[in-house]
Specification:
The protein is mainly alpha-helical. It is built from 11 helices and no strands. InterPro entries: Homeodomain-like_sf, HTH-type_TetR-like_transc_reg, HTH_TetR, Tet_transcr_reg_TetR-rel_C_sf, TetR_C_16. GO terms for molecular function: DNA-binding transcription factor activity; transcription cis-regulatory region binding. This is AcrR family transcriptional regulator. Keywords: DNA-binding, Transcription, Transcription regulation.
Length: 208
């Protein structure tokens, strides 16, 4: 397991079954995120998540409806969408650098990095998980980005930028491939930001 995954907090021991409180819902989500990080989407089960959270499986179903519903909520809470939205606002000429800088910071933050790893691991392990993440990203990131760009081929531009960031997260933080994983952060930003900026606002060989 990677260092990112190992950053996650350990579950608190429970005595007896929990009832349906907001704290219980949060405990279930936390247990689910740990399972997605360790076992991916296929290896995560409602029963195992319930056992780790100290609740009855029926309570997990009550809160989330299904394994897909649990994963969608894990995406919603695990992907720091608001933080990425904050990087969008500002001078369009600096958008590429702002996005890369914020994205790297989220991976390196112990509070968010392991959650991003869990979701990336799950997306790589099962097509259904990848579909759920894709749908969420389109609704929560792609559409707001295209509205901000207000230029030709905005959707394609946003997807090109997203592909660059996802690949960067996989190689640097999940797989830890040298020398990219050891490249100083400011050097990495200087290398990647111009590419993102070109994707978002530069001239691209796109037609139609």
């Amino acid at each position: 397991m990677t260092e990112i995954a190992e950053q996650r907090p350990r579950a608190a021991r429970t005595s007896g079954r929990r009832t349906g409180s907001p704290q219980t819902r949060a405990a279930i989500l936390d247990a689910a995120m740990r399972s997605f990080a360790d076992k991916g989407y296929p290896g995560t089960t409602i029963r195992a998540v319930a056992r780790a959270a100290g609740v009855d499986p029926a309570l997990v179903m009550h809160f989330f409806g299904s394994k897909d519903g649990l994963f969608v909520e894990a995406i919603r809470t695990g992907l720091p969408v608001r933080e990425m939205h904050g990087a969008i606002d500002g001078d369009p000429a600096g958008l590429g650098e702002r996005l890369v800088r914020r994205y790297l910071g989220l991976w390196e933050d112990p509070a968010t990095g392991w959650r991003m790893y869990a979701l990336l691991h799950s997306a790589a392990s099962a097509p259904p998980a990848a579909d759920l993440i894709r749908n969420f990203m389109v609704a929560e990131m792609l559409i707001p980005m295209t509205r901000y760009l207000r230029c030709d081929h905005a959707e394609t531009r946003a997807l090109l930028a997203a592909s660059q960031l996802v690949g960067l997260g996989m190689v640097r933080y999940a797989l830890k491939i040298e020398p990219l994983s050891a490249l100083p952060r400011e050097q990495l930003i200087a290398c990647v930001a111009p590419t993102l900026q070109r994707y978002l606002t530069g001239d691209l060989p796109l037609t139609g």
